[in-house]
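[audit] Reproducing an earlier prediction to check determinism. Same input, same settings, fresh worker. If the tokens differ from the archived copy the diff job will pick it up downstream; this log only records the rerun itself.
[audit] input (260 residues):
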Amino acid sequence: MITFLNFGIKDFIDIFLVATMLFYIYRLMKKSRSINVFTGIIIFLILWLIVSQILEMKLLGAILDKFVSYGVIALIVLFQDEIRKFLYSLGTHQRVNKLFKWFTNSHNKKDADKKNIMPIVMACMNMAKGKVGALIVIERKTPLDDIIKSGEIIDSNINQRLIENIFFKNSPLHDGAMVIQKKRIVAAGCILPVSHDTNIPKALGLRHRAAMGMSQESDALTIIVSEETGYISVAMQGSFQLNLSAEELESLLTKELGEN
């Protein structure tokens, strides 16, 4: 009864933070298809608490204590990719970004430069009509220098004709991705990381998987023009927006790029 009466706001915050942390770890494990590992860890921790704290078994408790001590290092090694993605998603969360923008008094919150957006939109529409496949990555906050180095350096102003020529079927660079950085076309023929997410519809091809991989490893916005259907899609923050019209693509680019 005394323990219950001593339960204060600090204890409530403590429990809430632990529950929130476990929930996010659960979501992370579920996405990476490691939910069974997460369940096993929880069972082990409960067993450890019972043995060492409740039953106070010194020998078995000491052995389990060693497992817990070294187990943390083992988990970091085994799940380094998942941990990196979790920390990245935490850092790029919309509310966190808004908070930083408020502190730094960031301007340029509403409209991106139409002069740089319209050539991309028009090129995508023309390529969609001719069913010319394309993959255009637009860098935002996460640097894409490693991706840029995998392709051919161009360093040009954003130009509709140039975009269409790069992705023309006989062009040597049409199979890779184009990267736009700081309102300039900096490289083409770039190699993107391919997502192996089983939730991606089978109807979507390798370009969509590469775009999804890019969106899972960075905050980049990637435009896909399908060679099979001519549909225009966008991959961003680990999800697709499929079959966009010219107006929808323009609106999306204006909104998202205007926030940088």
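[audit] rerun output stored. Observation attached for the diff report: Residues 98-112 have pLDDT under 50 and may be disordered.
[audit] end
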